Amino acid sequence: MRIGLLGTGPWADMAHAPALRHHPDVDFAGVWGRRPEAAEELAARHGTRAYGDVDALLSDVDAVAVALPPSAQAGLAVRAARAGCHLLLDKPLAVSVTEGREVVAAVREAGVATVVFLTLRFRPGVEAWVAEQSAREGWFTARAQWLGSVFTSDSPFAHSPWRREKGALWDVGPHALSVLLPALGDARRVAAAAQGPGDTTHLVVEHTGGATSTLALSLTAPPAAAGVELELRGLAGVTRLPADPGEGVEPAYLRAVDALLASARTATPHPCDAAFGLRITEILAEAEALLNA
Q1: Which residues, other chains included, contact 91 with Cβ-Cβ below 8 Å and sequence gap of 6+?
Q2: What residues make up the domain containing 191?
Q3: Average pLDDT, the chain
Q4: pLDDT reading at 175 higher than 90
């Protein structure tokens, strides 16, 4: 499959481009970016060509991978779907429900495959754990802590404008929900939301399966306090999210590419498709409204 890349930032350079270059079933056809000079530099580093016109790239490929801020991703995803391109999208799908719904509508009308790269869901140990917990009943409660130090360290994303504006709720909130929703059921409502230090956000979510979950999300945790923990408690006892295997991001992204190829080949939606991404956007928008009330 010929795949083009939209975006030239650090995430495009460290995750998307290496995986597209190394995947045996992908022809990494080219890169487009909002800054042409950055597209030229990234293309040279990864052995492909730069496009100055996004529509020219869309006409030359079967699919696009998007590594852009969510406000830019949504519009270009609609454009790409209408051009008949399958979509490998980043999280969050969009930061407004309206934009998210426009993406899903365009995807359905065009009949293209979609995968949203929610990193943990493309790690085999985590995915097997999610499947196991989703098959169990009787969950009572869950606790999730996604505490990052993006804004308190030398992270390459520390100066990301959209992260500075939207914070952990929109950056790491999708990761937490991508694991909680399959296990506990859809969110019936966000029961409470409170602001903590910096961009830290605390949520209480009621799920359709009867359980509640609490989420602590941050990009401003002290580096020594950063980390990810998630546990479920119920009739089966206590179970915890498997530890990070330390394999880096490229293997997970390669599996996301595999998922897109399979979905396009079989016309079978992937569990982490644009519709799932939209549901996450709807929940985060509900939480944001509570925070701003």
Answers
A1: 116, 117, 118, 174, 175, 178, 277, 280
A2: 124-243
A3: 97
A4: yes
